[in-house]
Amino acid sequence: MTHTINSPVAEAGTSAVIDYAAENQALRARMAYMLEQAERNHEIMMRHQAFDLEIVAATSFPELIGSIFRSLPIISELDGVTLSLVDEDADIRTVMERLGVDFSTFPGLLFVTSVDQLGLDLGARTAAAQPPRPVLGMFDATRHAAQFPQPAHRLQSVAVVPLLRNKRIIGSLNLGSIDPTRFTPSLGTDFVEHMASIIAICLENVISNEMLKYIGLTDSLTGVYNRRYIDRRLLEEISRARRQNYDISFMYIDIDHFKRVNDTLGHQGGDEVLREVAGRIKGELRLSDALARFGGEEFVVLLIDADLDSAAFVAERIRAGIAASMIGLPHGLQVSITGSIGVAALSGAGDGTAEATALELVAHADEALYQAKSAGRNRVVRYQAQ
User: Taking the mean position of all CA atoms in its chain, how far away is CA 135?
Assistant: First the structure.
């Protein structure tokens, strides 16, 4: 009969082997997790580097804003992204609209008139004060309504990150997530601050370039477009009208007897008249139309999707608006002004090259203007082909 004797030493050795195996398995699992996290972090870093390059390469305001709203939610796995820009006198919005930016395509782009509306902790507003830090925490529908006016998802946590340029607050980048733990007050903010700094630099550069572009396309006296802009816009609209099969019309407007105004009131008085007339013309136009000063006392108007009858109707309103009331000048002076207008239209955007067609359309409107002035001024004449 054989007896089995369990040795304490043997049992201890077996236990040790079991413990080592479990520990080894735990270490392997831990290393696999760390490797997975490292790969994930590397992927996130690469995506953000690609995003940085994308926005740095943006050459226009719509391109930059479009990249931010298109790419950032994907690469950062966010459920809400908006951008608030400080625009105290609506200069940015006005210039971008005049350059053709369609803000309806960027519902996440918000404008505020003061940094106090950004939802940041501004602290003591002194010259020596530290710049504001990102504000992270739970989403509150009332408190964050300005940053997320129409959230597409039920946000749970948000980060409001200041956009800073040379310690000046130009806006905020607003990030939202349905994960309540995504943005907490204890979370490190170095990464989002770095991202916001890149966006702030790109925004400032693009806005500055767009402002310079606008200045180059605008008449400094009246604030309307100049000839350079209308020449370029006319070519674009002719090509677009041919693709989409609609009419465009062109007006040539001349202030009657403007030389007498300058001779009587001086150039300062003449400048006031030009500014007032430009405002009266613009008041009769749609946002899609374009008004430009061609030089001297001549203005032109480009009407989009308008045939000759429609253009003549608008031209008559403009003529009546110019003549409707006296124009007030400094020192209590007033002057009565009238205008002559020639109108021409392009049905189906014509044939031939866009350049030749544009020259022909302008020439036809100019010829109609000449007829209006020859017929006694203060009237609208349509161009009629002989």
Answer: 25
Cα-Cα end-to-end distance for the chain: 132
Cα 331 from Cα 338, distance rounded (Å):
22
22/42 Cα distance (integer angstroms): 30
Range list of H helices, 76-186: 91-98
Check if 43 is active-site.
no
Rounded CA separation 26/37 (Å): 16
Tell me how far apart the alpha carbons of residues 159 and 177 are, in angstroms, rounded to a whole number: 9
How far lies 11's CA from each of 18, 22, 310, 344, in Å?
11, 17, 102, 105
Annotated catalytic residue, options 54, 210, 276, 297: 297
Contacts of 75 (CB under 8 A, 6+ apart): 44, 47, 48, 50, 51
Return per-residue pLDDT of the chain as tens, 386 residues.
Answer: 455 545 555 555 555 555 777 778 888 878 877 777 677 666 767 777 888 899 999 999 999 999 999 999 999 999 999 999 999 999 999 899 888 899 999 999 999 999 999 999 876 555 556 788 999 999 999 999 999 998 878 999 999 999 999 889 999 999 999 999 999 999 889 989 999 999 999 999 999 999 988 889 999 899 899 999 999 999 999 998 888 888 999 999 999 999 998 888 888 899 999 999 999 999 999 888 999 999 899 999 999 999 999 999 999 999 999 999 999 888 788 899 999 999 999 876 567 788 999 999 999 999 999 999 999 999 999 998 76
Residue type, 128: A
